[in-house]
Every structure is written in structure tokens, then in C-alpha cells.
């Protein structure tokens, strides 16, 4: 998939994060959508959702569950701590530290993805930096965890897939995205570390919100009204522990 580079002003909002002064933008491309397709803005109803990977709460692959408490309700995510141990450890630790509390979902790309995980978004005065913030527990960028032989990557980026946003190879911090649709053509350069297991109606509501487009008539932009992640609650898989981390 060829990358499309956005104008400089647009880059203030999109993916990418760095906790250094020379922050970089993500290289995740915008998705091309055929606006002549009468269904291009259709919200996928829950009854049509199909999973390529069956998630069993007792599966050894699922090490944690994370619940995002948002403006529109809860989104529950199964985390793949065996496939992406460093990524999941980073996410879980930041969640327990409250890093994601009161941050915003700052990008909605219709029929593609929603982006979040930037601590800068809790500060309206720093709006020009939204999409460029982030941190990690490793003191800076950490490596991708991509295994082409894993069933997760054979399936690819499907509805409900949770993956890291990055500003290049091995440049991960805290920003991540949730796929809103099939995106099998997306280059497998973004660490998949989870899958939504509940809260699909919430995701649909978020996608359906009005946006301030990054360019005229674009389906990719910043939510017109703030969509807040109030808190992220993490539970270990019951197979290992029932302890809840508040």
C-alpha cells in the first residue's frame, strides 16, 4: 500500500508519537474509500460482526482484558500478551498508572480506524500537538512485535483489531488504533496486541460522530465534540488471576 503524505497542517493531528522535542508523525497511510459506493458510510451492525479468531477467556494467548470507559460506554479488549509481551506490558503499565485517564479519541477515519493513546489530548491548549504525543515505560521508543507466522497476522487488520500506531519501524510509544472495518490491505507494520470482544455498539457510535475533516470532504478528521477515555481498567486473564487493577 502506498503511503500518502498529508500537508503540514494536517500532520498536527494524525498518528505518530514521540516524547522528544523533535516529534515525528506516523507513516500510517490514509485509506482510500470509494465515495460512490452507496454503503461507504454504513455503520456495521452488531449482528453482522464475525470474528476470524475465536477468543476464549481461558485461552493462554489472552493474558489480560482492558476496559476503556468512554463517553459513549465501555469497550472491552482482549490483550495478546504472549504474542506482543513488550507492547502489552507497556499498555497495561500505563493504564495502571492512569496515563490514559481523561485522554481523547483524537482521530476518526470513517470505515477505517479510530486513534487514541496520546496524553497530550487532555490539554486543549496543546491541540496543535495532538497526535504527536505519547510515552512508553521503556524511556522512549520500543520495538515492533510482528510475527508473520502468528494466526493474528495471517488474519490481518480486521474489524475490532487493536494495534500500535507508530512513526516508523520500531518507533512505538503509547498511541494505538482500533480498526473499524476490514483493512487486510494495510501493511503489516503495526503491532497487533489486542482484539475488541465487547462494546461494538460503542465503536459504531464513535465512528458515527461528526468530524472536523483534515481536508475538504474528507472522511478522516478530528471529532467535532470531545470523545473522552475517562479511565482504562485492566484485569488479568482469570486463568492467571482475578485481580482487578483500578
What does this structure look like?
This protein has helices at 85-97, 151-155, 200-207; strands spanning 64-70, 73-79, 103-104, 107-109, 113-116, 161-166, 172-179, 192-198, 211-213, 220-223, 228-236, 244-245. The protein is built from 3 helices and 12 strands; from the N terminus they run ββαβββαβββαββββ. 11% of the residues lie in helices and 25% in strands. Strands 1, 2, 3, 4, 5, 6, 7, 8, 9, 10, 11 and 12 form a 12-stranded antiparallel sheet that branches. A hairpin with a 3-residue loop joins β4 and β5 (113-116). It is of the alpha+beta class and 246 residues long. It has one domain (56-236): Cyclophilin-like (Cyclophilin), CATH 2.40.100.10.
Index terms:
single chain, 246 residues, alpha+beta, 12-stranded antiparallel β-sheet, 3 helices
Per the principal axes of the C-alpha atoms, what is the gross shape? globular
In round numbers, the mean pLDDT is 80
Structural class per helix/strand content?
A: alpha+beta
The assigned CATH architecture is Beta Barrel
For this structure, what is the CATH class?
A: Mainly Beta
- One letter per element, helices H and strands E, the order comes to EEHEEEHEEEHEEEE
Layout of secondary structure:
Elements: E1 64-70, E2 73-79, H1 85-97, E3 103-104, E4 107-109, E5 113-116, H2 151-155, E6 161-166, E7 172-179, E8 192-198, H3 200-207, E9 211-213, E10 220-223, E11 228-236, E12 244-245
Antiparallel strand pairs: 1-2, 1-11, 2-8, 3-11, 4-5, 4-10, 5-7, 6-7, 6-8, 9-10, 11-12
